[in-house]
Amino acid sequence: MTQQTRANRIGPAGVMPHGLMFHHFHGPQHSKSQGSIDAETFDRILGHYAASHVLLDAADYLERARSGGLGSRDVCITFDDSLLCQYDIARPVLDRHGLRAFWFVYSSVINGGIESLEIHRRFRSEHFADIDSFYAAFFDTLGKTRYAAIVDRALQDFRADTYLAEFSVYSDADKRFRYVRDHVLQAQEFGEVMSSMIAAAGTSTAELARGLWMSRDELLRLDAEGHVIGLHSHSHPTTISRLPAETQYHEYAENHRVLSEILGKPPCTMSHPCNSYDARTLQALKALGIDLGFRSNMAGTAVTALEHPRDDHAEIVRRIGLSRQP
Known about the structure:
Number of helices: 14
Oligomer: single chain
Number of domains: 2
CATH architecture of the largest domain: Alpha-Beta Barrel
Number of strands: 8
Distance between the termini: 46 Å
Structural class: alpha/beta
Radius of gyration: 19 Å
Strand content: 5-15%
């Protein structure tokens, strides 16, 4: 029996081993943003799952996945994107529960780089009254650029009900924005529009980057405490599956190199940024010796070594009726 077959223990009503996926937190020194949660909500989510599932430390989940010993109600905690708010706000809650998590890190920011996805998120959270105000300003700005006609044509056949349908937490406006960002505009073109908005607001990339990401010191402390640090690409492309195979491999190989140098050992776990991957991605990860990978949703039933499902915290908050999401 193969590892993938043994690990694929689907229980009643599609119950399966999976990760709980967390991104943004708000609290002291970290402002609210779309979908962010506070320490109390995180604590309540852990309590909810402890009552109905088996909350495993990351290292235990990894070893059971390797051996095919995961049960249908086994779950683990995962964090994506190298965010300092996770370390500051979620880590103390994990300590109180005696839990250790997976931390999936993109490495460009650990070496002092800037990753635009989080810069843009912070900008829209801190400089607009709400997300719809940002979307209105974005499309107004876009309409004054040379890209306006291209975007208008692309949106004529856009179907919000079918695009990203597996992510129920996205509104139609969220989907429209992400479609334009990821599939209509080139990365440089989207960056140009956002840079003009940032400049018009009187702020800067450097200001928006302050306090966003963890450093080497936080990663080393997490590792020393028994957490598991894994790959999340080097520069966090939002559609890595659209990149050539060589570029995909480089994204993960550089991520692997940086984390190996920091931790003194090679990482063997990962999660797929924005759930974007294909057969070439999986081949690159296998070549790098990755044993366990996570996708970003609960769609489908297969639990393969590099495609363990995850439940998004925004979906969890909605489903179990927590109310502290901003």
